[in-house]
Amino acid sequence: MVLKMLPKTLMTDQTIMSGMRILLVDDDPIARESIKLLLRIDRHNVTEAKDAEEAQKLFRQNVFDLVISDYFMPNTLGNELAVNLWRISPSTPFLMVTGYYEKLVNSGVPVDAILAKPFGPHELRQAIARAFD
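The chain above was modelled as a monomer; its predicted structure follows.
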């Protein structure tokens, strides 16, 4: 993981994290592609999973700096995935992205940060930073 400053034209009030190995989990291929494109702006290395089962397999085979997962997915919800991955590596931050933000934000979901969909690059960067706090 690399901390770097963006050019002044893209500068925000914070240092940007870049170059992380991120596991991105979302059953919606369009949402997954959109989030991946936002992450690649900051030069992250993104590995995609279409569901929790694939995510767990990838997580066991690789080392990731961060997991970003949708909440509502078939078969296994994002909070269940978070618990399963935490059992494997409790130190890996987990960011939940969801259209159900109001329902989850104060519910005790076992994640490091929650981000409401839809979002842009600035909100994603802030949520990633929160996940590492």
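The chain has five helices and seven strands.
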